[in-house]
Write a structure and sequence with these properties.
This protein is mainly β. It has three domains: 54 residues; 200 residues, 8 Propeller (Methanol Dehydrogenase, Chain A); 255 residues, Alpha/Beta hydrolase fold, catalytic domain (Rossmann fold, 3-Layer(aba) Sandwich), CATH 3.40.50. Helices cover 13% and strands 34% of the residues. The strands form eleven sheets. An eight-stranded mixed β-sheet has the order 37-38-40-39-41-42-43-44, sandwiched between helices. Strands 9, 12, 13, 16, 17 and 18 form a six-stranded antiparallel β-sheet that branches. β22 and β23 form a beta hairpin.
Length: 695
């Protein structure tokens, strides 16, 4: 093991570049890539630095004629998508796709008939929008898989900023669950070797719903989701999902003619979502993910006939991610959970043969494993840790998992000297008295077991994720430890209705999002209070952001005898006022009954406003384009109509992620100190501006 470069020389260069002293032991490099003597990374700015490690000279991409199109480590830039050969970038201009030669800067139109509300590669899911096109380049860099985004007739969303003088209106297409018209996509292939008028090859099929199996968008990660090219660039495999997410149809398209062949369908009674699939064109196969036996496993299909060849993995555990497929050795390397003893959320790396053989564990240490493959596919970089144990980084054989080298062991002694203490993992039973649930508990660093502490329940109900998140080591978990230092015990628990376990576990409250996993939160906290005499079950508060804002308000309205104080931020309080994809996946398509009620009434917080008994602080950003502020205003209006006392904070010109702003954090802390502890606090104290990303 040796340094990849001279840290001291690079620190000197970076110091001159950014205008401050940078220590060799603390190089602020992010999004780092290192290849052929050239280092690229972002350093305290969105721009990249390109450093020649032969002469230790760095040049900022900002101001460079190619800066805004510089390829990052994922092959994408802020506004365009780079071809595999690195020669071209595709971007959007006036609703059409254009190509740019990255060497000469020459630009040319790839499409010419795109118009407003019916453009090419448009990135708009309503709740999120972007300027970078959604496309997938072919391996030979001569074709592009994309679509025309049809938003004609889709309802509008409006936000107005706060300023002196006339406000500015932000208006855009944002479909809701009750809408008869939502986004559609008409799939096309662009052939760059054809003339402009003949370049667009429509796929011979009806438009698809704006849906995917991997997120509530057709963009998954940084690219076009559910689309895979064949190695020879002659075909694409893709998935069409129905509006209600119950059916996913796998198809193959001829990239030159647009002809379509349907292979097979995956049908669920509730919702289907995928942990990933792959098109193995060299062997004419699809490696498919399914929870058809209640657990997430891989299945091998014939891509010529659509016939199932074999189930590749099986058991009472889940495949979470396909890392890589070696088509030559016919081996798939993947991340799985729940197969090993201990915490079922711990992620491990495995491999298995596509044709036969047992699953092989590659990362045996009992911990959560963050794993990446070496560029040549021979090695695994394995970073193992738990919420309590700091990371250890090792190099392993990708084939056998054998330990080759210990790269680094994290030293947290300085963190501990500052008073840091890890959270306490725990397990409790769910509402059914049988299912194990897992979470983390935070106590003050001056914890006294003879004292009694009020309880704060932080939650994010999902259903696409849980409260705890990654089981890897973190020095901070939002501001949960900070809250504990104010004299509380803080609990976060992954309830039923969240992913990572069985299909049945995940769909616990499908069609009843107002459940929010709250019965499990309450059951778990009661068990902890029975277990630990220092937890005061008579004083319980709750808070969350976004879905957690929805859930925390639901908690104090539905269970006033349990939750006495709630802080609710940016909540989607009625899914009829939130993006269509979300509600229709987890609550179902909107149904109106003869008596005027709907199947969405059971989740709407504003219909429960008259149940408020405790103290509620509700907050929202006025420019929240993800969860529109009307969600909170529905609750506010209903509370006023019910003559209820409550507290409201509107954050002017803030978008969705204001939860860790110092002002919001201080008001949240103060609210619990005053109303849950019954204590006084300093007036208008200052909190530092550092911290984690928005939550």
């Amino acid at each position: 093991r040796e340094y990849a470069f001279d840290h001291e020389r690079l620190a000197n260069v970076l110091s001159r570049t950014v205008g401050r002293v940078i220590e060799p032991s603390g190089l602020p490099l992010e999004n780092l890539s290192l290849e052929a003597g050239t280092l690229m990374a972002s350093v305290e700015t969105p721009a990249y630095l390109r450093c020649d490690l032969e002469i230790y000279s760095c040049k900022s991409s900002r101001g460079d004629s190619r800066s805004q199109w510089t390829q990052d480590t994922n092959g994408f830039s802020r506004t365009q998508v780079i071809s595999p050969d690195g020669e071209s970038g595709v971007f959007i201009r006036d609703h059409n796709l254009w190509a740019r030669n990255l060497e000469t800067g020459e630009e040319s139109a790839l499409t010419t008939d795109g118009v407003e509300d019916f453009g090419y590669g448009t990135d708009n899911a309503g709740w999120t929008r972007g300027d970078r096109p959604i496309v997938k380049w072919s391996p030979d860099s001569r074709k592009i898989a994309t679509f025309r985004h049809d938003s004609r007739g889709v309802g509008m969303m409006y936000l107005v900023n706060t300023k002196v003088g006339h406000p500015e209106l932000d208006a855009w297409r944002y479909p809701l669950p009750e809408d008869s018209v939502i986004f559609r996509i008409s799939r096309v292939i662009l052939d760059l070797d054809r003339s402009v008028g003949d370049r667009v090859i429509p796929l011979k099929m009806l438009p698809d719903q704006h849906r995917s199996t991997c997120s509530d968008h057709i963009r998954c990660g940084s690219g076009f989701g559910d689309v895979e090219w064949s190695a020879d660039s002659k075909q694409i495999a893709f998935v069409s999902s129905t509006r209600d997410h119950k059916t996913a149809t796998v198809r193959i398209a001829n990239a030159s003619k647009g002809e379509i062949k349907t292979l097979f369908e995956e049908v669920e009674e509730t919702f289907y979502e995928s942990s990933g699939w792959a098109y193995l064109s060299s062997s004419s196969e699809i490696l498919w993910f399914s929870q058809r036996d209640n657990w997430g496993h891989l299945y091998l299909y014939d891509s010529d006939s659509g016939a199932l060849k074999r189930q590749v993995t099986r058991g009472f555990w889940n495949v979470q991610q396909i890392l890589d497929i070696d088509e030559e050795s016919r081996t798939v390397t993947f991340i799985g959970t729940g197969r090993e003893d201990g915490d079922p959320y711990f992620q491990y790396a495995y491999n298995v043969g596509l044709d036969a053989g047992d699953v092989r564990l590659l990362t045996p240490d009992s911990a959560n494993h963050a794993v990446s493959l070496s560029p040549d596919g021979e090695y695994l970089l394995d970073i193992s840790s738990t919420p309590v144990l700091p990371p250890t980084t090792v190099l392993r054989s990708r084939e056998t998992g054998d330990l080759i080298l210990t790269v680094e062991k994290s030293d947290i002694s300085q963190l501990e000297q500052l008073g840091w203490r890890p959270p306490m993992p725990f397990a409790v039973k769910a509402r059914d008295g049988e299912t194990d649930l897992y979470g983390l508990l935070f106590r003050p660093t001056d914890f006294d077991p003879e004292s009694v502490y009020p309880i704060i329940n932080y939650l994010y109900p999902g259903p696409q994720s849980g409260s705890v998140g990654s089981r890897s080591f973190r020095s901070s978990h939002r501001d949960l430890q900070s809250l504990a230092e104010l004299g509380f015990v803080v609990v976060e628990l992954d309830a039923m209705g969240t992913p990572g376990r069985s299909k049945k576990f995940h769909e616990t409250y499908y069609g009843n999002m107002g459940d929010n996993g709250l019965p499990d939160q309450i059951a778990g906290i009661r068990q902890l209070a029975d277990r630990y005499s220092w937890m005061d079950i008579a004083r319980v508060g709750i808070f969350g952001h976004s879905g957690g804002g929805f859930a925390s308000t639901a908690g104090i309205l539905r269970y006033p005898e349990f939750y006495k104080v709630a802080v609710s931020q940016a909540g989607n309080h009625d899914q009829r006022n939130y993006e269509d994809d979300w509600g229709e996946k987890w609550q179902g398509l909107l149904l109106e009954y003869p008596d005027g009620t709907t199947n969405y009434d059971n989740q709407a917080n504003h219909l429960l406003a008259d149940k408020l008994e405790g103290k509620l602080l509700i907050a929202h950003g006025t420019l929240d384009s993800n969860v529109p502020p009307s969600n909170t205003m529905l609750v506010v209006n209903a509370l006023i109509a019910a003559n209820k006392d409550f507290d409201l904070i509107l954050m002017p010109n803030r978008t969705h992620g204001f939860g860790n702003e110092p002002y919001m954090m201080r008001r949240r802390w103060d609210y619990f100190v005053r109303h849950l502890r019954g204590a006084k606090f300093p007036k208008e104290y200052q909190i530092g501006t550092g911290g984690e990303r928005d939550f």
